[in-house]
Amino acid sequence: MADKRILVTGSVGQIGSELTMELRRRYGNDNVIATGRKTPPSDELKNSGPFHFIDVSDAETVSKMVREYDIGTIYHLAAILSAVGEANPSLAWQVNMGGLFNVLEVSREHGCAVFVPSSIGAFGPSTPVDNTPQLTIQRPTSMYGVTKVAGELLCDYYFEKFGVDTRGLRYPGIISNVTLPGGGTTDYAVEIYYEAIKHGKYTCFLGAGTSLDMMYMPDCVSSAIDLMTADPAKLRFRNAYNVTGMSFDPEMIAAEIRKHIPGFEMDYEVDPVRQAIADSWPNSMDDSAAREDWGWDPKFDLVAMTVDMLEVLGKKHADGQL
Ligand SMILES: NC(=O)c1ccc[n+]([C@@H]2O[C@H](COP(=O)([O-])OP(=O)(O)OC[C@H]3O[C@@H](n4cnc5c(N)ncnc54)[C@H](O)[C@@H]3O)[C@@H](O)[C@H]2O)c1
After folding, report:
1. Which ligand 1 atom minimizes the distance to the CA of 81?
2. Alpha-carbon torsion 43, 44, 47, 52, what sign?
3. Which residue from 8, 11, 15 has its CB within 8 A of the most atoms of ligand 1, so it is best to mutate?
4. Does residue 193 carry a catalytic annotation?
């Protein structure tokens, strides 16, 4: 890695809180500048290195960070997620598009490399749902999806036109046990573990049979860093690569939990907004391009992830942290 520093936007969020700490472990605490919007950072994040509040939709606050800290790489995680975006589409547009535009512009001016997560939300009802190809129809029906497709195109544009080193991943639902998710459609797959540990039962907001791609946080974090350290000559895609760790529906995850908590019960109270979003997303993605180009190789499947999630959350519960 070059001698320049790393800036993380959205570092207080579900992915940022864990990715930032891993970047600090790898590259040194003072070389990774964490930023958030309003949510107070954890003590770990605040005390381990520089932390600032910025608004990514305000170009000057982003530019100031890049200039002050001599930033070489930006992990741009600040965004409004799918369910929140449907409730407030104009905010989703302002943050997701305005923020990305500001990050790409400052990267053009200062020669930064940029990591931008796209999402399975960049697909829509006319996309093939099984083994969804890397290159396929992208006509999403949520504002979140619209911003993710436009964001992918913007990354392509800045790479082709200005030579900005843009790299991205189409993340599936991310499952983790440090920071709760920020209002997405796949949040049920995180909540189900917390509720299983706390109450032995869960009411699922997606219906039975809703299959979606998912990934466990350790794979999410390593995929971002692996992509950013990959040989640029091998990268065929500068918008975003399909990546997935597993694909399951609510019954499958409940059955896996029951192997450890036999009395676990699940019922359904379907949220029509999130169900409509989930129905427009793939059942399972083809991530062979990521495997071929930069060696994507996830470590966790549903079985291994469930063991780890229940162990970590079980300990937290026993310690009174849940
Ligand atoms: N978590 C998932 O399941 C998932 C799946 C696919 C893609 N992604 C993408 O990964 C990225 C990170 O997602 P996450 O799950 O960590 O989201 P999150 O909601 O947990 O965190 C996003 C952070 O962005 C911050 N933010 C919002 N508006 C801001 C603004 N104007 N200025 C600065 N910061 C602002 C929020 O405070 C929040 O902490 C997003 O681009 C998201 O679309 C996430």
Report:
1. 43
2. negative
3. 15
4. no
**pTM of the full predicted structure?**
0.97
**DSSP secondary structure code for residue 168 in this structure:** E
Query: How do residues 15-60 score in pLDDT, each as one tens digit?
Result: 999 999 999 999 999 999 999 999 999 999 999 999 999 999 999 9
Q: Does 3 score more than 90 pLDDT? A: no
How far are the Cα atoms of 162, 233, 278, 280 from residue 146, in angstroms, in the given order?
23, 29, 15, 13
Write out residues with Cβ below 6 Å of ligand 1. 9-10, 12-16, 36-37, 39, 54-57, 77-79, 81, 95, 99, 117, 119, 171, 173-174, 181-182, 184, 186
pLDDT in tens, 239-256: 999 999 999 999 999 999
Q: Which residue has the tokens 């849940």?
A: 322
Laid out side by side, the sheet with 212-216 consists of 173-175, 212-216, 246-248
Catalytic residue among 69, 144, 171, 193: 144
Under 8 Å between Cβ of 140 and 126:
no
Centre of ligand 1 to C-alpha 32, Å, is: 18
Indicate whether 2 pLDDT > 90.
no
How many C-beta atoms lie closer than 10 Å to residue 204's C-beta? 23
Cα 10 to ligand 1 centre (Å): 6
